[in-house]
Amino acid sequence: MTEQDMSILALIAEASLLVQLVMLILVLASVASWAVMFRKHRMLREAEEAAERFEQNFWAGGDVSELYRELAEQPEESQGMEAIFESGFAEFVDGQKRKGRSADDVVESARRSMRIVHIREIDRLEANLAFLATVGSTSPYIGLFGTVWGIMNSFRALGTVQQATLSMVAPGIAEALIATAMGLFAAIPAVIGYNRYADKVERLEVRFDTFVEEFCSILERNAHSEQ
């Protein structure tokens, strides 16, 4: 390979088939992780905005039954805090209609119903975060494997010549190091994205937990006042 051919694209084109396969895997992993991060950014932003709107409506002092009816009449399915509220309030109303149930049993049933929806919502928000963690943790090692393989081929080629020069091994080593660089290029954004979005999900989980406990306190007061 001449000096003019030492561009990145030329080095990739001249790399061995296995090293090229490693590079392709890393490119696909990087593209997929960026797609996940863009989708996760939009999903979590919408979840945060929806939670903010619902809390403003809920704590505005209006009728909870009216809020429930408004949410039930929405054409789209409720998600996040709205879904948790709907599940708990529906179970609370249904429990009050059943004779022989104590106030504590009715509230506890509503709490369990909200917890189930809470778990489902967190699971939905956490979807594909494990993929980002996998890309972030494995990409450097995949790139390193390509690097080791490329350097090994370069040194094996030296054994077939009488006199070795730097110009003979430089292209092989350079193309091998590209695999390491691509591994880091795929891993670093994935790690940053995972940490950022995992933190956002954790904050939303705490927010949901807080709402469940606060709403259960309201339901408990109402249940005891009606008995």
TrEMBL record:
Outline the extent of the MotA/TolQ/ExbB proton channel domain. 79-209
Give a yes or no for keyword Cell inner membrane in this entry.
Answer: yes
Taken from the UniProt entry, a GO cellular component term is: plasma membrane
A Gene Ontology annotation in the biological process aspect, one of them, is: cell division
Transmembrane annotation, as ranges:
6-36, 129-152, 172-194
Protein's UniProt keywords contain Membrane? yes
The cellular location(s) given in this protein's UniProt record come to:
Cell inner membrane; Cell membrane
Tell me what topology the record assigns in the membrane: Multi-pass membrane protein
- The record's principal subcellular location, in a coarse class, is membrane
Keyword list, A-Z:
Cell cycle, Cell division, Cell inner membrane, Cell membrane, Membrane, Transmembrane, Transmembrane helix
* NCBIfam families linked: tolQ
Job of this protein? Part of the Tol-Pal system, which plays a role in outer membrane invagination during cell division and is important for maintaining outer membrane integrity.
Q: Which family does it belong to?
A: Belongs to the ExbB/TolQ family.
Q: How does it assemble?
A: The Tol-Pal system is composed of five core proteins: the inner membrane proteins TolA, TolQ and TolR, the periplasmic protein TolB and the outer membrane protein Pal. They form a network linking the inner and outer membranes and the peptidoglycan layer.
Name listed for the protein in its UniProt record: Tol-Pal system protein TolQ
Source species: Natronospira elongata
Name of the gene: tolQ
